[in-house]
Amino acid sequence: MTDVAVEKDQDSLGVLAWIGIGIVSVAIFLAVFSPWLIPYDPTQATENVSTPPPPLSAWPSLFWQTIVGDGPTPHWFGTDASGLDVFSRTIEATRTDLIIALSANIVSVIIGVSLGVISGYFRNIWTETLLRTSDLLQSFPVFITAMILVALAGRSWVNIVLAMSFLYAPIYLRLTRTEVLALRDRSFIEAARALGKTEFGIARQHILPNAIGPSLIQFSVTIGFAILLTAGLSFVGAGVRPPTPEWGSMIATGATQLVLGDWWPSLFPGIAISVTVFGFAVCGHILEKRYGR
Amino acid sequence: MIWRFTLRRLAVGLVQLSVLIVAVFFLIRLLPADPVSRFVGLNASPEAYALAEQSLGLDLPALEQFEVFLFGDDEEVGLVGGELGTSWVTGSSVNQEIRQYLPVTLELITLSFLIAVGLGVPIGVLGAVNPGGAADKGTLIYGLFAGSQPEFSWGIIFIFVFFVVLGIAPGPLGRLSPLTDPPDFVTGAITIDALLAGRVDIFLEALWYLSLPILTLSFVLSGPIIKMVRENVAQTMNADFMFYGQAAGLPRGILARDALRAAFAPALTLIGILFGFMIGGAVLIESIFSISGLGQYAIRSILAFDYPAIQGVVLTISALTLLIYLAIDVCQALLDPRVSV
After folding, report:
1. Could you give the CA distance from residue A245 to residue A40 in angstroms, rounded to a whole number?
2. Is B160 an 8 Å CB contact of chain A?
3. A270/B150 Cβ within 8 A
4. What's the rounded Cα separation, in Å, for the pair A267 and B161?
5. Is B215 within 8 Å of B285 (Cβ atoms)?
6. A215, A174 in Cβ contact below 8 A?
7. B53-57 contacts: CB < 8 A, separation 24 or more?
8. Residues 7 to 66 of A: which have CB under 8 A from any B CB?
9. For residue range A197-237, what is the model confidence (pLDDT) as tens digits?
10. Which residues, 6+ apart, have CB-to-CB distance to A242 below 8 Å?
């Protein structure tokens, strides 16, 4: 029964995996090529204020018009209360959010994994202190701490990245250290030592490559968290400054128009963020199922 | 046995909390923010600036500030006396403000958890009973989806659908209609206070106003709960004692019940961790639905650089989280004596 269940489970992952990979690829594609894809300047107001998006039935003809270059480019997702094109901003925001989330995770992985290798391989008072500090950081309330760090240090994207690295590095440190502890007494490490390699060389050449796996799986999951955190911070006014296109701040500005019935300025960035984080969550899940313990 | 374990865990928790107090206090002051000019304005004269700095106590060296925070001065008793200080913005005691806002948040997340667990556990079990079946795939995808979602975006979608379009839910105006007199403040949780005052109508109205925030939160929370229950139950279903049960020809329902019991311990841990997380994570939901809880208080204090209030919020949340972890550990030890050894 066990084997059948596992096989079925992987089978069912097939379609889901492709959905996840598809979403993530599209998100990365949009982030890289957004300047060539968007019809309007995302920070430049047009004279059309609060225009609703064209009805779906009109899309094919409008699409044809755009291709042959006849008439003005339509506002596919409408415009918000300041006349900014929601479509262009939603696409351009992919870039803002993805860059912040990716940078934060890369910094966290670099810091977390190297400190994890060090604290797992060399065990002394300093690495013990390091470990306790990292545990302490993990007991901070994540969202509120991020808000404090960014609001007090200044609302720039560098500070957001730093604040998130501060909060996420301990996750990677823990994961890596657990792996290193299992590795350090294995015979191939002993063999390397017998060959006369330096301790640092062993840690770098033999421990690191074998201990980084779980962190790479975690990477995909944490990018989703980081996107949510980035958007959440600007949603409450403690993230990147407007008019920088960013999903969270777009949803917040759009929300004020919601009671008037203007659903488009907040709905489209909302869909974008929902789909993107779902894609990263799926990829994380697949990686964990395939390569995890 | 269990008492010694509890005491030991409590001691560890207290040490953690003390270190956290020190860390938060100095971390805030290490950041390049200037709360003084925030209060007197950027164009204030140097004298006014110095005066404000003095009245906020920021003219002292950081270590002395910490001493005042801990042991108080002529006016206040300090943290040792149980006081978190005075808010720079409102001028009232941070203790009192937290006493007012915390129950609101606890009420919101407790109700959301009840719904999320009540729905998530049966759905998760349903998925695990028949691995690979349609129900299993469905719960897996739902769990992954709901667990990854931004609650603020869904809150807004729910407001639009249920309030603006359908008109069957109240608007995001807080915990009661602005025209209703709130019940006397006893616990701070409006549903309980209404019941204490014998006002069933206000109790129902409060639930009515909380319905959308609860729907949003329980939607997001149900994701990880379903995912975890599904995995744990599926794992237990493969345990030896389950094979024995199957071999003995027990019906599926009874097998599922046994598996659920065995899967309970890890579930308890996750629910505890999620609960602790939500105390500091309900910020965005409170902001969307204008619920004046701890999260709204945190946003206001942080954006106003109100250091005493910020410290108070972080310490309250961390202390509560540590307490919850302690409670989980004790429950685990009670369920499974091997834990406390």
Report:
1. 12
2. yes
3. yes
4. 11
5. no
6. no
7. B56/B88
8. 8-9, 11-12, 16
9. 888 888 888 888 888 888 988 898 899 999 999 999 999 98
10. A234, A249, A253
- Residue B240, classified by CB atoms within 10 Å of its CB into exposed (0-12), middle (13-18) or buried (19+), is exposed
Interface ipTM: 0.86
Instruction: Kindly list the structural domains of chain B, giving each domain's residue range(s) and its CATH number in brackets, ordered by start.
Output: 33-83 (no CATH), 96-153+218-340 (1.10.3720.10)
Residue with tokens 């993805």: A98
User: Quick one: how many helices (H) and strands (E) in chain A?
Assistant: 12, 0
Lowest mean pLDDT among A69-73, A135-139, A256-260: A69-73
The answer for residues whose C-beta is within 8 angstroms of residue B276's C-beta and 6 or more apart is B320, B321, B324, B325
Nearest C-alpha neighbor of B319 from the set B90, B79, B110, B89:
B79
Q: Which residue of A has its CA nearest to B166?
A: A261
pLDDT digits (tens, 9 = 90+) for A166-177: 999 999 998 898
* Sign of the alpha-carbon torsion through B139, B144, B145, B148: positive
Do A248 and A64 contact (CB within 8 A), yes or no? no
What CA–CA distance (Å, rounded) separates B10 from A146? 28
Are the C-beta atoms of residues B218 and B119 closer than 8 Å to each other? yes
Q: Is the pLDDT of residue B271 over 80?
A: yes
Task: Sketch out chain A's domains with CATH numbers.
Answer: 84-291 (1.10.3720.10)
Q: What residue of A is the nearest CA neighbor of B301?
A: A148
Kindly state the average pLDDT of the residues B86-114.
Answer: 90
